[in-house]
Amino acid sequence: MQPYVDKCDIIPAPSTDHSAITLKFKIFESEKGGPSFWKFNNSLVENERYCAELKKQIKDLKTSLNNEGIFNPQSRWELIKYQIRKFSMAFSKELARNRRKAYKYLESEIKIIEDTMGKKHCGPLQESFENFKRIDFHQNGIKILGVYFSYNDKYNYDQNYKRIFTNFQTILSLWKSRNLTLYGKIQVLRSLALPKLLYVCSVLHVPEDFIKIIESTTQDFIWNGKKPKIKHSTLIGDYEEGGLKLPDFQSCLKANRVKWAIKLFQSNEENNNVSSIPSTYLKTIGGFHQINDNFDRKRIPKNIPAFYKSVLTTWSEISENNSNDPNIIYNQYLWNNKYIQIGGHAVFYKDFSVLNINKILDLCDTNGDFTWEHAKGRGLQNNDFLRWAGIIHALPAMWKK
């Protein structure tokens, strides 16, 4: 068919996670067809507006036929069928027209994002992100690489969490009737059941109630619905500690969130697009550059998406570093540090950071002392004295020693 192809192109396909290939063929001389055969589209009966308008049309037609004195059942039935056909065709064309219009709009929005993602600067990326947010996902959602996204929370929960839980439960049900040992059940969980959950949960915020459901279902599978004979904390331990390495769902999630945090930090250093979206929410606390050890979770912006909030919350939990080693203390970051609080809150001073005052080491002179003369030498002005003194006062006593 290659000789007959006039044009070929690759375009976005909003209804799937693949791109579409379009082919435009040269015009053929076609023979004239015979009379067409109309077939009713059954899906129209699921449209409430169609049903309501059709009932009204039939009612009005019956009234008109009565007024015109047409009472023959066969004639009335033929006229009603004609009216149903006429109205159904017009209604179907209207639906198709609206669907094409919405599809074209969605396609153009995706093209904007694709074109911008190919550029190296982030200004247009933010603009395209704002355009993407205008797409109406309140009723339904969009499926990208097996994960559903929508503004409708119920739709998200049903299409993502309920769906994967059904798959998870199906796997356990298949193996529950077999007389497996603890080792066998743990192997089923590790190799067959949990992978059904981890892919979707690795890119979405996981509700606490869903975590509890998974833990409860796992415990029921391990102990056949009976009271546990071994503590969960023991089962998830290594063999050397008397455990059986039972995979813990919540621990798997935390490990994934830590990997995401490291990926976002590296992306920010390399100035690529992976961290562009969360970076827009973190400007008030200095961005990813100011998220380090001892990060205070209270500094996470309230309006940041739930997934990124879970990433930063997990990082705050595992980044604890309260060592008394002088080298570690000198390299402690001043900003967003849970151990350096002014008025009960961790702080970030942008003008200090611009002067490269970010660590405790930056406040110390060559003798390791905190002096105002040294601070002025770093670029601070007299009106910065109170804030500088507040930071020095906020340092833990052990660190200052």
Layout: helices, strands, pairs:
Elements: E1 5-12, E2 19-25, H1 48-67, H2 73-117, H3 123-133, E3 142-144, E4 147-149, H4 153-176, H5 182-193, H6 195-201, H7 208-223, H8 232-235, H9 249-270, H10 276-281, H11 306-318, H12 326-330, E5 341-342, E6 345-346, H13 350-354, H14 372-377, H15 385-394, H16 397-400
Antiparallel strand pairs: 1-2, 3-4, 5-6
Helix pairs in contact: 1-2, 2-3, 4-5, 4-6, 4-7, 9-11
DSSP strand tally: 6
Largest sheet: 2 strands, antiparallel
Estimated helix fraction: 40-55%
Structural class: mainly alpha
Terminal-residue CA separation: 82 Å
Shape: extended
Q: Work out the helix count.
A: 16
What portion of the residues fall into strands of 2 or more residues? 5-15%
Provide the residue-averaged pLDDT. 83
Q: What are the secondary-structure elements, in order, as H or E?
A: EEHHHEEHHHHHHHHHEEHHHH
Main sheet: strand order? 1-2
Low-confidence stretches: none
- Rg, Å, rounded: 32 Å
